[in-house]
Amino acid sequence: MSQAAKTLTVDLKRVIAGPPAKVFDAWMDPKQACNPWSYGKTLGLERKAGTAFCVVMGSAGAHFGRILKLAKGKQLQHTWMSRYTRGLESTVTMAFKKHAGGTLVTLRHTGLPNDDGGRGHADGWGQFLGMLEGRFAGK
User: Fold this and answer.
1) DSSP letters for 37-66
2) Which domains does the chain have, with CATH numbers?
3) What is the pTM of this model?
4) 66-88 b/e with 16+ CB inside 10 Å = b?
């Protein structure tokens, strides 16, 4: 009998009906209700590698991270830490690539604990990507 993996990875993909630069901008704008930054009070979110941020998401509590890489319209990589990661620093990497239907957004969240809190990130990120998709639907 093998031991269960201690961490897990969430991989999600969505095609968003908009150009990569606009989809990226919508994802990074706390004033647009289609991203985690708009879900609560966001502090310190800057479009610059090396900066830290905090998002207080109501009953979900505070989520902290640092921007690791940022290439406008192409890539975002940041750390993510909350009570749902058991205080462990995990990593979210997103790519925004031109696609026949607009933009292919891929999201990979690594280093999550292999428990209910870690697994719940698949639903959470899926909801945010769904809101992003809705933001561009019919445009």
Assistant:
1) GGSSEEES--SSTT-EEEEE-GGG-EEEEE
2) 7-36+70-136 (3.30.530.20)
3) 0.92
4) bbeebeebeebbbbbbbebbeeb
Beta strands (DSSP E) in 1-139 are: 7-16, 41-43, 52-56, 62-71, 75-80, 90-99, 102-113
- Reading the block at residue 52, the tokens are 């830290």
Cα–Cα dist 109/57, whole Å: 19
pLDDT digit string (tens) for 72-94?
Answer: 999 999 999 999 999 899 999 99
User: Tokens representing 90?
Assistant: 């995990």
Residue listed under structure tokens 């462990």? 88
